[in-house]
Write a structure and sequence with these properties.
Helix content: 25-40%
Structural class: alpha/beta
Shape: globular
Order of helices and strands: EEHEHEHEHEH
Number of strands: 6
Number of helices: 5
Distance between the termini: 51 Å
Radius of gyration: 16 Å
Strand content: 15-25%
Strand order of the largest sheet: 1-2-6-3-4-5
């Protein structure tokens, strides 16, 4: 009943009828498990997870990625790996998860946005889980109808919050040309 803090499992219903669970403030192991707990509990036509790497991974991180991948395999109908494919795929494969249900977008948020815009349907729930430096909030903003031209994996304005960044709509591509 408490409104979540920004970037902490906040929920939004999109014009398409799909819903987003946005948790992009931090991505330590405990917060990933909390986000997956919620995704497991929600009712949805399809469950989609956009997932980044564990921030500050514990020693023997491979074991933790494998456990998270097993949970994803049981919970999500589609897994979109944002700079985390090599971490999650071995565990997903071991859990029998179909390769065609895993998409590696690396750090290309534009690819993630395009894929989700093409495939989201009413009743779907998308968990977007990553750390603040990934700026995955831009995926949620684009799906909600905001113009997002900045899809860069590198943010030269690390302290800027995406909704207020003057480069959000036009992006940085013109600024990095040699």
């Amino acid at each position: 009943a408490v409104t979540p803090s920004p970037g902490r499992l906040s929920a939004e219903v999109l014009p398409s009828g799909a819903s987003i669970l946005l948790d992009d403030a931090k991505s330590c192991l405990e917060t990933i498990h909390a986000a997956l707990d919620l995704l497991e509990d929600v009712s949805a036509a399809r469950k989609i997870a956009v997932i980044g790497p564990i921030s500050e991974p514990p020693p023997h991180a491979r074991q933790f990625y494998r456990e998270l991948a097993e949970r994803l395999a049981k919970t999500a109908d589609l897994v979109i790996c944002a700079a985390s494919y090599d971490d999650y795929w071995p565990g997903l494969r071991a859990a029998g998860y179909p390769r065609e249900a895993v998409v590696d977008v690396s750090a290309d948020l534009g690819q993630a946005i395009g894929l989700l815009k093409e495939t989201l349907r009413s009743g779907d729930v998308v968990l977007i889980k990553g750390r603040d430096r990934q700026k995955l909030l831009r995926i949620a903003m684009a799906l909600a109808g905001r113009q997002v031209g900045c899809t860069s994996s590198y943010c030269p304005v690390q302290r800027a919050h995406c909704p207020f960044c003057p480069m959000l709509e036009k992006g940085w591509s013109d600024h990095f040309k040699a």
